[in-house]
Amino acid sequence: MAALLLVPSVLRAQEVQIADPIEPVNRGIFAFNTYLDGLVLRPASKAYDFVVPDVGKQGVRNVLDYLHTPVVLVNDLLQGDTDAAGNTLGRFMINTILGLGIFDVASEAGFKKHDADFGQTLGRWGAGNGIYLVLPAFGPSTLRDAGGRAVDSLVIDPIGTPFYPPGSELPWWVKLSRTATDAIDTRFRYGDTLEDLYNNSLDPYATFKTIYLQRRAAIVRGEQADATQQKSYDAIFQDDGADNGAK
Fold first, then answer.
1. Are 54 and 189 spatial neighbours (Cβ–Cβ below 8 Å)?
2. How far is the C-alpha of 171 from the C-alpha of 185, rounded, in Å?
3. What is the mean pLDDT of the chain?
4. pLDDT tens profile 161-175
5. Bridge partner list, 140
6. Could you read off the pLDDT of 38-91 as tens digits, one per residue?
């Protein structure tokens, strides 16, 4: 859920319209996710921050990004973006040979990190969002992006999900550990902004919805944010002559 808070600097406040025909169900799942966040992710991220030193946390994030490289590379190619694919392949080779998968040597060499996913690929191919969804544990999504997430996890990602593919050489608990670590690290990195959104929004459901849809629309247009850039919700909703939306 916290990943939706990475937004491009060019992003303004115009609202992205999308059907939400199952809003009561989505709101129920949103409430469940909020409860789950307070019960599990928030305390886990606090413990993670207390126990793991800063250099260790950066190493964890580097390893998670490194393991995600095949998904980014395949989607770069599917989108026909050979420059991005070359950058991704260059990052992988440099960080494998010189960084051992732990240190992000490639960024220092000018190979900047970017992301790509199959939901974005479908958008580049002209697929619409479909209806708005809130996924249990994963948070805001759309029908297109939910399908894209499934393809990334079950088809493209060589590690797969904890229980798929069956007969995988990697035990389920190793894959589950990667998923849990990614969730905790992401919650830690965007915890303050999430707390602000929860505490200062009149309707957190609507606020999260708008931010997610704006971010995804910008990503499909190719307006990705730098991976280190985090905008506050105050900047996201800065008046630009358009009506302010809420996620």
1. no
2. 22
3. 85
4. 766 666 667 788 888
5. 134
6. 999 999 999 999 999 999 999 999 999 999 999 999 999 999 999 999 999 999
Residue 233 CA to residue 60 CA, distance in Å, equals: 27
The residues, any chain, with a CB within 8 Å of residue 137's CB and separated by 6 or more, are 33, 36
CB atoms within 10 A of CB 47: 12
Partners of 135 in beta bridges: 139
Neighbours of 152 (CB within 10 A): 22
CA distances to 69, 103, 109, 136 from 99, in Å: 14, 4, 12, 35
Helix (H) or strand (E) holding 144: helix 143-151
The residue to which tokens 């992000």 are assigned: 104
- DSSP codes joined into one string, 165-231: STT-SS-HHHHHHHHHHHHHHHHHHTHHHHHHHHHH-SSHHHHHHHHHHHHHHHHHTT-PPPTT---
How confident is the model at residue 106, as a pLDDT?
Answer: 97
Distances (CA, A) of 20 to 147, 217, 232: 17, 16, 25
Burial of residue 108 (number of CB atoms within 10 Å: 0-12, 13-18, 19+): exposed
Alpha helices in 68-142 (DSSP H): 69-78, 82-97, 105-108, 118-124
Residue 187 tokens, joined? 């919650």
- Closest-CA residue to 172 (of 163, 160, 181): 163
212 CB-contact burial (10 Å; exposed 0-12 / middle 13-18 / buried 19+): buried
Asked if residue 236 lies in contact with residue 10, where contact means CB atoms within 8 angstroms, the answer is no
Alpha carbons within 13 A on the beta-carbon side of 234: 2
The full length of the chain comes to: 247
